[in-house]
Write a structure and sequence with these properties.
By secondary structure, the chain is of the alpha/beta class. It has helices at residues 27-31, 38-45, 60-75, 99-107, 123-136, 160-163, 212-216, 226-247, 265-274, 286-289, 296-303; strands at residues 11-19, 24-26, 49-51, 84-88, 113-117, 143-150, 168-177, 184-191, 199-200, 223-224, 257-260, 313-320, 324-331. It has two domains: 11-177, 3-Layer(aba) Sandwich (Peroxisomal Thiolase, Chain A, domain 1), CATH 3.40.47; 184-331, 3-Layer(aba) Sandwich (Peroxisomal Thiolase, Chain A, domain 1), CATH 3.40.47.10.
Length: 338
Amino acid sequence: MKSKNSKGIKSAITAVSGYVPSDVLSNNDLEKMVDTNDEWIVSRTGIKERRIARNPLEPTSFLAIQAAKKLLEKQKIDPLSIDLIILATATPDMPVVATAAYIASEIGAHNAFGFDLQAACSGFLYGMSTAAAYIESGRYKKVLLIGADKMSSIVDYTDRATCIIFGDGAGAVLFEPSENEFGYEDSYLRTDGSGRDSLTIKSGGSLYPYNESTFAEGGHNIKQDGQTVFKNAVKNMADAAEQVLIQNDLSGDDIAYLLPHQANKRIINATARRINLSEDRVLMNIEKYGNTTAATLPLLISDFESKFSKGDKLIFAAFGGGFTWGAVYLTWNYDYKN
């Protein structure tokens, strides 16, 4: 829905940072692990390599903390001024305790409350809408939204359908009240629970608790029906991007850049074609990182921050397990400074 509030407050992204582990898992590395090759992976996904946090003592919280600290240090922000931390993730450190709470403590944000948001690959997109609403309420001034996932912790590296796709990473953005007319504008967000078995980790929840049988069957690893996911992702991501343009009387000519979820280059291209965007206005880093799930969008913002100018109209789009999907329209709030 379009961003409105009775207090006349508009929310905006005012800072961004990203973090990826140093270890690279290339397509050539995967050739030695499963029946695949570089040409097959690149032609079907656009991925050439991905980053992996190999250290078991570096969970999702570690990735998120690095991204958050970089943002705070870059902008010289006192962590005590942070009101709220939202962590979008599909791989929390633990299944019950909120990883966001631990992140807040570790970065010194002792005045903040925090919670995790789980919407798979759409998590950060949904988090943008949530963070904007908190700012627009007038009660909060600084909301730190982090997208982070250690996908290597849930990938079966003997399953070529999933191990070629996913990587690890984190990105963080700060939402604050806008000091100009630019910021978060509108969203179009949707879900369809009938698709939940097509992209899932079966065990570990209340429906299929962990036991010896579920572990032996690999129920703790991510599985997907690739054809079903691809078909729905192409249609729904493109539909959402088109719909948010329609809601705001925009055309592709008005858009500076599309920032799509980095799952598959063919899905990205289909979304761009739907809203008539040329290749130079579609941002991608999938070849370097693969699909980092909730981290893909903030890593895109971080990697391409220098390209944005104040007032640029940006469209974000994502599709994930659940099924979850949507698009966000945002006008960029500041000019890049080194």
